[in-house]
Amino acid sequence: MSALSDGQLLSTITGPQDLRRLTPEALAVLAAEIRDFLVAKVARTGGHLGPNLGVVELTLALHRVFDSPRDRILFDTGHQAYVHKIVTGRQEGFDRLRQRGGLTGYPSQAESEHDIIENCHASTALSYADGLAKAYALRGERRHVVAVVGDGALTGGMCWEALNNIAGAKNPVVIVVNDNGRSYAPTIGGLADHLATLRLNPGYEKVLDLVKEALERTPLVGKPLFDALHAVKKGIKDAIAPQALFEDLGIKYVGPVDGHDLPAIESALQKAKRFGGPVIVHVVTRKGYGYRPAEDDEADCLHSPSAFDPATGRPLGSSGLKWTNVFADELVALADERADIVGITAAMADSTGIGKLARKYPDRAFDVGIAEQHAVTSAAGLALGGLHPVVAIYATFLNRAFDQVLLDVAMHKLPVTFVLDRAGITGPDGPSHYGIWDLAVLGVVPGLRVAAPRDAATLREELREAVAVTDGPTVLRFPTGSVPADLPALRRVGPVDVLVEAAADRRDVLLVAVGAFGHLGVEVAGRVAEHGYGVTVVDPRWVRPVPEELVTLAAGYRLVVTVEDGVRAGGIGDALAKALRDAEVSTPLRDLGVALGWHPHGTRAEILADLGLTAQDVAREVTGWMSRLEEVAEPALSAGKGQATRA
Asked: What predicted TM-score, i.e. pTM, was given to this entire model?
């Protein structure tokens, strides 16, 4: 087997059945080849590297013990599903991982029969597993359901709701807790502390086995003394580990198991498979295992790097100033000025910018784990206590806490500021991570105000305006990636910035460019002007509620066009159209935004082009609309002239 190298063994794996014929020695070679494969492929495309390096042996064991796809293997979040994809016949697709037309970064029903859920948000797999197991039981099908969850996922309340039901149903559900002490960042909370205590005693079970062997060789007192020691040991272990908690729920606990010892994992999974009821298998792994740059990365073990140098793990090229960094710097500046400013994040401190505040003011930054609902209501409590919390979260994840935003914060008119990172189309992570719903969903929340900065200067300005609000919640949303150059306004009308202004006698189109589409709006104005139409471009800055000044401006133009990177249904275009109707302004409106649907992964630029949200596309639409308006107006004008002549 030593003759195999450079991925030769990996190339022979076309499905899980091929794993079951391999010897222990061959499996060790295969694990090494998979890690080399992961580093080489992810270095080119970017992706979730650290989580997958940590679950190589675990994934091999799962597919050797269980019969996928008959037995269902569910990966919570899906960050760690790359190895699963590799051993289920998708190796060739990794050349275009997370790129247009290539493999998705998460499980995908369209890719393989081995994927049943397209799961990308944490703490949900156990609920899927509960429902699947109940369905199989009712249908009389003897199939195992296996859910792989991280220790970070267990900080989410949905996991505990599912565990309660799994225990009550008593179906054969195997719950593998992949415990690496980290989700995006080090896992926090009470359960995490218990797991960490256990991880600090890796030789505990092995030492007990040695004691047992020695005592059983001792006549008379050996067996009774071992039984006594075992009773003491169980009491100690129950005090420091979650075993008692899970078994009190009615779920058998197995572990902890070394997550990089393949025979040990297989043995534990076989026991769980034979048990016939719900079992938790506690597997301790190391995120980034086997690749030194990931192991040495203290921030997040190269959780999800962009393209990097595989020799060093360092990113390639200059990434420019990021929206998140601008926010992080300004938040710290505000905290320097105001003692009531505090930050909250849901397990993503550095990814959302709260990490910088935490490093300077550790007592004023709170990481609540993967628990968005709790984050929002905890923020409500902080506001009730006289503070101004800033909740930094990805736009897609705020969907999980809508009820809390609506009733716990807004109904109480509490000054909580939500900063939504990765708003709009984000690109490679695909539809589950697109932050395209917030403008529509939050539009129904009474008293909530939403700002959308177009550049670094307006981000800083609007964040300061947001935390100055004392009578209700505010939202600041911005996209992923690098910040464009500052785009100064010509003048300001109330909260509305005028970026381009048409001549007084050529006020044909009012183009409302939301947030980061400011630069696009300016380019569109130039293109449309070439066709003889005058375009004024405005940035509302505060888009919810619709500024009265925007309605007044709209009344002076022949056509209003809105451009936003949220869904059209219920978006800013819809809101402005309603405001025009309510004010009895007859100016027609056309809205451009994201069509409802599940848009595929790709770069942000590629997806926006597909959606017709480029300067060229928007200019073509605006020119066409104006041309059709004139075609309609010309016969009416001629008819009016004729009537005047006859009169």
From this structure: 0.80
